[in-house]
TrEMBL record:
Organism: Haloterrigena gelatinilytica
Protein name: IclR family transcriptional regulator
Chain ranges of the IclR-ED domain: 69-253
Presence of the UniProt keyword Transcription regulation in the record: yes
Domain HTH iclR-type: 9-68
């Protein structure tokens, strides 16, 4: 993670705050956005107009929304990633084999980003989508990635983003998280037992290069009634670890 710039460009920072807030609000008008950001309406209006003219926002029924032009940039960035290219066919196979959600995540700036996902025949509807950013400690994939990072790197992420609670089962204590990361290193895979979404369990494995540097993680997630003890602790981990191994080999020799 890079350090903060010595002289942040305030206008650029404001622009991105506006975009991110519009995303969080699922669209808003000038007044609502100005109130949310505690900024002058004139300033917000000028930024919105500029972004709209540049085609990064769209205006519908008086509200501004994040536009599809961001999809072009994100799609291009994703398509250039070797991990995405190599792992995507395996993610599809994983979803087909298990019938559940199969996911691929990377870490950027201390957050987990869903890079790809595939939906099996029995998969339930979830809030995840390509590009969704989540706190690493709330997901099996995030914890799998963290288990391959140094303690100093983990501390830096905790200091930057904290350990916010998402469900009643979310780990919010740093020492408890580090104990679990040690267990993940020992067994090779991570679990998420309703820690981000109530009623859902998840099993994940890290994807690493030859130096054991984490490149990302893959997972399979499903409802607790189907992810019973045998499935959750034996069947799914074997399948996920096998797929992770295939991806790592293909990454090395492609």
């Amino acid at each position: 993670m890079s350090s903060k710039p010595r002289q942040p460009v305030q206008a650029a920072a404001t622009t991105f705050r506006i975009i991110e807030t519009l995303h969080e609000l699922n669209g808003a008008g000038v007044s609502e956005l100005a109130d949310e950001l505690e900024m002058p309406k004139s300033t917000v209006h000028d930024h919105l107009q500029t972004l709209n003219e540049a085609e990064y926002l769209v205006k519908r029924d008086g509200d501004y929304h994040v536009g599809a032009r961001f999809l072009e940039l994100g799609g291009f960035a994703r398509s250039q990633m070797k991990l995405y290219q190599i792992a995507s066919p395996e993610i599809e196979k994983l979803a087909e084999e298990t019938g559940e959600h199969a996911n691929l995540m990377i870490e950027e700036h201390g957050k987990g980003i869903f890079l790809n996902k595939a939906k099996g025949r029995d998969a339930v509807n979830l809030d995840t989508h390509i590009g969704k950013r989540v706190h690493l400690h709330t997901t099996a994939m995030g914890k799998a990635i963290l288990s391959k990072r140094s303690e100093a790197a983990v501390d830096e992420i905790i200091d930057r983003h904290g350990l916010p609670r998402v469900t009643e089962k979310t780990i919010t204590d740093a020492d408890e998280l580090k104990d679990e990361l040690a267990e993940i290193r020992d067994r090779g895979y991570a679990i998420d037992d309703e820690e981000r979404v109530a009623g859902m369990r998840c099993v994940a494995a890290p994807i690493c290069d030859g130096d054991e540097t984490p490149l990302g993680a893959i997972s399979v997630s499903g409802p607790t009634n189907r992810f019973n003890d045998e499935t959750f602790t034996n069947e799914i981990p074997k399948t996920v670890l096998s797929t992770a191994n295939v991806i790592e080999v293909n990454m090395t020799y492609s």
